[in-house]
Amino acid sequence: MNAAATLSAPAAIDCSRHARGLFIGGKWSPRGGIAVVDPSTERVLATVADATVADAIAAVDAAAAAAPRWRATAPRKRAEILQRCFALMTERHEELATLISLENGKSLTDARGEVSYAAEFFRWYAEETVRIGGEFRTAPSGNNRILVDYEPIGIAVLITPWNFPAAMATRKIAPALAAGCTVVLKPASETPLTAYALAELYQEAGVPHGVVNVITTSTPGPVTGAMLNDPRVRKLSFTGSTGVGRTLLAEAAKTVLSCSMELGGNAPFLVFDDADLDAALDGAMVAKMRNAGEACTAANRFYVQDGIYDRFVAGLVARMGALKVGPGTDPQTECGPMITRKAVDKINALVADATTKGAKVALGGQRSEGPGFYYPPTVLTEVPADAAMAFEEIFGPVAPVYRFAEEADAIAAANNTEYGLAAYIFTGDLKRGLSVASRIESGMIALNRGLMSDPAAPFGGVKQSGLGREGGVHGVLEFMEAKYIAASF
Ligand code: NAD
Questions:
Q1: In a domain, 3, yes or no
Q2: Which end of the chain is more exposed for a tag (fewer CB within 10 A), N or C?
Q3: In angstroms, what CA-CA distances link 404 with 304, 350, 356, 392, 401?
Q4: Which pLDDT score is estimated for 9?
């Protein structure tokens, strides 16, 4: 992407084009609706279909009808279809980025980054489809051979959040299709247009009818519950909050469903005295402000050592204060609105709690006037350890900075959470960086970097941040079962 393209205004798009109904068995079924609101303006962009339990079962019927053929489709052919999905997403990059920016509110720069990231899952899994292996060896007893074959797990229900409307879907659909599974996707009702736009694209790329079905609903509990209790469904892959994840795990227990869970985070960002200050600030801006803080990997707690604390805070305030806040689709915008008014209310309450307990406001700290769901970039210093934001996801452009003296104290504070998704470490001493990384309870660590997401790497959390991994060579195995054959010959 060149600089001119980055700053160009997007072409107007007709959102209602992507609100044709539920996408089941390759056909569109219109149903009355869920309003999709532009968080930048509070205007209704389109009205999408509202699925019932019967619609959900029809989607499972379609996935079941398509399953035998898709499972039997040659890996090379499946790979070619995934490659075409990548090519079409790349071709429609700008249109998809504008749609994401409109329904989610994120800046065009972030939306463009998301489309590239989301498309890469198709390229990566197109490459993986033809490399799924098995095992063949002699049993230790010498009496037989051990054969292990990897088979598609079966019909998968995919549930995704609003914060990355394209990438959270493709991170599941691409490996599921690579594995030979058929799927029903239920995207978040705040951002369904991207999911439907992508459904059209998959069809054009040659994904057969029924292999990917997309349904939106205002009653996700009963609608997804009906699918999870259908014995034909064998997989749930969920990305969203830990609270909803717990509910779904309990539901999935009824049919002993295989579950992959990408849940909430509370990422610590550690800056040691010997860190390169500019690199730490660059990393902080990416880790905190990508998607205006609405990311599961967002730095939620900055732990900064005494010797660099004042300089880090001054640099962070300068950079956060210089960000241009505005509507997502304004090409100048660097920090868009939050997804809903409720999200702003939550951020506001967390900031009020911290300041009541003694935190100092170094920047921002007051919600913005509407229309639109805006909260300004905010930096809080001397945040007490018992502030609610030390334990809850802020999911917004608020950077709380905590002070520490000893390495052991920083590690203990970083681990003092039920979450364990992502963590960031900045130090000039690689030995210390790797040593601290080994003691942080987290599925992913960024060492002297502000970003770790990569389609070729295993993404996921420990503790209550999740189960399983997406991306990399691991992601496809989440949609497969090992079949062991003990053979004598
Ligand atoms: P959410 O849990 O409220 O919703 C996620 C999805 O679940 C949506 O599609 C929603 O409609 C659906 N849902 C809600 N209640 C349901 C129910 N009872 N039964 C079935 N489905 C239900 O999360 P959100 O607000 O959309 O997204 C933000 C959360 O997602 C944050 O906690 C964030 O950390 C997490 N997240 C995690 C990752 C990751 O990879 N670990 C990535 C992105 C977001």
A1: no
A2: C
A3: 6, 22, 21, 20, 10
A4: 73
